[in-house]
């Protein structure tokens, strides 16, 4: 009986393992290029594979040639350049390719999930509606596959997204590579997909969009790619599968332990399940071999025939336990979303990893600060904010027109958008993070959501929390503390030393733009301002620190604007202030001119530009000096009638310089005039009314001014004195930072002054050249004047 059973069992096995091959009209078909028959994702999580999975995944993947029938394209020049850099890169960390592909897959899943909020049908059948990412490896054919059920790509999408890229992104990335050699930030430039060529020499992208057929994109990174309608692979339903034919030196990425570690390291906080088709060893009961059964029969010969007859029906087939390899989908990212957890339960390391995931920045640098909070009340939401350690390369490019955002909006854990200006103002666009609201409606369009009243409340709270977070960086920095507090702060936060200076160097301009744009939070932002002063020895200081050092009786906060610190420190406007030990703020950023048009006062103290009218410095003799130089100032204003000078006054701000030109209190400073004139589309006619009235201020203690006064008293009509007065005015214009309207006239006066100092007659003429014709000679072939006929040339040759 046992022998009959074993014969039947062996016969069944032979039938099952027979491979008939694939035939079309009776002929074997060699499928080229490679394909995978098994539809990824057919087995639910936690269930072992069926015994026929190997047969269903069988494929002829050895050839790496483009499909002959495919439509061929050439890569955009920028893409080819980028791929050359990647392929020839000596960058050792090739792991980044996996995180970039998973990040792209997550973005595709976000898009289809958002569309499904208003149209459930876009998800398709139950299998396609399962939003996840699946990773599969094929050691036999050296293929690594990443599959998502995201929105998919049409044929045009494949051409646009994988064949062309924004030139600015490429240029910025190439520049970054040339300076640092670091490919780690490739995802921030929108070119992360091409990192696959770090490990693969042939790539297939199979994609199905609801609005188009299924297509295959393929490239060997040789400057071209091909696209064809997919007639070789199982229908995806919807989504994208990327197959990487790995290089020989990249075989480590066929190790499932390696893949698990990479997902854990880089993609732990992706909001969709990431599963690996993983193998594992299990114990399985199988029928015992025939020889083993025979041995057992011999041992039982002593049993009586009656006992055998009684036990025959109850007796079970002989089995044994063996180790077999099975496959099943293993979930790799089972960590709960950080923002849904209590802040006290999240470690600093987890916050740092989450930041890197959001920023697509996997360098070793930690965020400067973060804020994790829950808002309750009429509008409830959870949020996590991060201050990155470095500013994006294009932070201020197209500042007011860019829709780029680093902040993500979720509604009930569903990603909605990262282009909501209503969440954070432009000046805080450098912050990274997300907000997850249970109050906002889920099944409405993005446009309707942007108009929702709750967004205003969310925005207001986010701004407050963001500014508090930035202020905390300063509060915890020992370099920012007053002397009384510094000892305590240094003991508790040595690791925070210099952090606010780092923040300011990266994002200081954003704080200034916030003061310009956000009137409601202007005072809070002003507390975050940092600048150098005439007495700060190159260190940054705050307005509060400046005010703590103000002299007794000082009514205004003094500042000056210019193009550089070195230029400002030599400015004649600071001479008297320095001698009297007044501290002056040095503003050298072009945006500072706009800033000070909005920041009029701070803590009841007015701001005073020391290069403008209105500077008040105590001088007991100033009134007497004004009276004694009254005749000179009146004469000088008349002499400058053609120069559009509003008035000439005795100055209280000069020490060593004879005179300077200041502007009216509410007009443009010299620095602002220079900035506006440098604008490409500036209109001089419209700018004229914004230019401040010019006032010449003279130093009554300077010997030149004293001598001029004596000369004017003696002879007001002396032409030499008038020319000297004009020359001094033009010189003071330049020293005060203005641009001369007529440089030629100024140069002529300088040359006349030089002639006078050398005792050269002012009318002395320039010696003219001798009127002699120069005869040019040139060597020619031949000495006679006859022309050479073509036939003669031919004969010579």
Automatic annotation (TrEMBL):
Location in the cell: Endoplasmic reticulum lumen
Keywords carried by this UniProt record: ATP-binding, Calcium, Chaperone, Endoplasmic reticulum, Glycoprotein, Nucleotide-binding, Signal
Cellular component terms per the entry's GO annotation: endoplasmic reticulum lumen
Protein name, per record: Endoplasmin homolog
Span of domain Histidine kinase/HSP90-like ATPase: 93-250
Domain of life, per lineage: Eukaryota
Region called Disordered, residue ranges: 285-322, 474-494, 762-797
SMART domains found in the cross-reference section: HATPase_c
Residues reported in the UniProt entry to bind ATP: 100, 104, 148, 153, 161, 167-169, 188-193, 240, 446
């Amino acid at each position: 009986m046992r022998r009959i059973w074993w014969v039947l069992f062996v016969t069944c096995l032979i039938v099952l393992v027979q491979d008939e091959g694939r035939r079309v009209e009776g002929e074997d078909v060699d499928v080229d290029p490679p394909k995978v028959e098994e539809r990824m994702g057919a087995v639910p999580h936690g269930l072992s594979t069926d015994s026929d999975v190997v047969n269903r995944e069988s494929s002829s993947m050895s050839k790496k040639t483009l499909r002959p029938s495919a439509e061929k394209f050439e890569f955009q020049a920028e893409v080819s350049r980028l791929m050359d850099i990647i392929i020839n890169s000596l960058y050792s960390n090739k792991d980044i390719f996996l995180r970039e592909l998973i990040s792209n897959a997550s973005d595709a899943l976000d898009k289809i999930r958002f569309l499904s909020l208003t149209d459930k049908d876009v998800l398709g059948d139950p299998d396609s509606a399962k939003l996840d990412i699946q990773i599969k490896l094929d050691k036999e054919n050296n293929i690594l596959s990443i599959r998502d059920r995201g929105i998919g790509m049409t044929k045009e999408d494949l051409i646009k997204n994988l064949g062309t890229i924004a030139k600015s992104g490429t240029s910025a990335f190439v520049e970054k590579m040339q300076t640092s050699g670091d490919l780690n930030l490739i995802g921030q430039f929108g070119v992360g997909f091409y990192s696959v060529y770090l490990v693969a020499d042939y790539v297939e992208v199979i994609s199905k969009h609801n609005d188009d057929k299924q297509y295959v994109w393929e490239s060997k990174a040789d400057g071209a790619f091909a696209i064809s309608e997919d007639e070789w692979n199982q229908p995806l339903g919807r989504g994208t599968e990327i197959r990487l034919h790995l290089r020989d030196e990249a075989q480590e990425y066929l190790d499932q332990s390696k893949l698990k570690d990479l997902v854990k390291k880089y993609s732990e906080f992706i909001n969709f399940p990431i599963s690996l088709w993983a193998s594992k060893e299990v114990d399985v009961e199988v029928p015992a071999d025939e020889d083993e059964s025979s041995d057992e029969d011999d041992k039982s010969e002593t049993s009586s025939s009656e006992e055998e007859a009684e036990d025959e029906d109850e007796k079970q087939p002989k089995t044994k336990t063996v180790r077999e390899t099975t496959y099943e989908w293993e979930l790799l990212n089972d960590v709960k979303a950080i923002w849904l957890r209590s802040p006290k339960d999240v470690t600093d390391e987890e916050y740092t990893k989450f930041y890197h995931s959001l920023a697509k920045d996997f360098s070793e640098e930690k965020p400067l600060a973060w804020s994790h909070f829950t808002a309750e009340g009429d509008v409830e939401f959870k949020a996590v904010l991060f201050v990155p350690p470095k500013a994006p390369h294009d932070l201020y490019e197209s500042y007011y027109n860019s829709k780029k955002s680093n902040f993500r909006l979720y509604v009930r854990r569903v990603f909605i958008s990262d282009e909501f200006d209503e969440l954070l103002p432009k000046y805080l666009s450098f912050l990274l993070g997300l907000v997850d609201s249970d109050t906002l409606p889920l099944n409405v369009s993005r446009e309707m959501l942007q108009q929702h009243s709750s967004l205003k409340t969310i925005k207001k709270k986010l701004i407050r929390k963001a500014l508090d977070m930035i202020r905390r960086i300063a509060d915890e920095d020992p370099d920012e503390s007053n002397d009384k507090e510094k000892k305590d702060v240094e003991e508790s936060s040595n690791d925070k030393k210099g952090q606010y200076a780092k923040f300011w160097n990266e994002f200081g301009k954003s704080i200034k733009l916030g003061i310009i744009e956000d009137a409601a939070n202007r005072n809070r932002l002003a507390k975050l301002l940092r600048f150098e002063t005439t007495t700060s020895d190159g260190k940054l200081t705050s307005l509060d620190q400046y005010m703590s050092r103000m002299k007794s009786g000082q009514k205004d906060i003094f500042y000056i604007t210019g193009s550089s610190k070195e230029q400002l420190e030599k400015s004649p406007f600071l001479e008297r202030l320095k001698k009297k030990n007044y501290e002056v703020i040095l503003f050298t950023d072009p945006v500072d001119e706009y800033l000070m048009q909005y920041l009029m006062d701070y803590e009841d103290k007015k701001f005073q530009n020391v290069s403008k009218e209105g500077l008040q410095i105590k001088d007991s003799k100033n009134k007497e000096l004004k009276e004694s130089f009254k005749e000179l100032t009146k004469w000088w204003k008349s002499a400058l009638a053609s120069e559009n000078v509003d008035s000439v006054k005795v100055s209280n701000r000069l020490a060593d310089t004879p005179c300077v030109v200041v502007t009216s209190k509410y007009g443009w400073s010299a620095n602002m005039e220079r900035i506006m004139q440098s604008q490409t589309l500036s209109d001089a006619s419209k700018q004229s009314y914004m230019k401040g009235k010019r006032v010449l201020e003279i130093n009554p203690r300077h010997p030149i001014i004293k001598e001029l006064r004596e000369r004017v008293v003696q002879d007001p009509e002396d032409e030499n004195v008038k020319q000297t007065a004009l020359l001094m005015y033009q010189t003071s214009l330049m020293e005060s930072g203005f641009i001369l309207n007529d440089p030629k006239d100024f140069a002529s006066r300088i040359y006349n002054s030089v002639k006078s100092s050398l005792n050269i007659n002012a009318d002395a003429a320039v010696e003219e050249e001798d009127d002699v014709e120069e005869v040019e000679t040139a060597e020619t072939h031949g000495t006679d004047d006859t022309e050479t006929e073509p036939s003669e040339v031919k004969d010579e040759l």
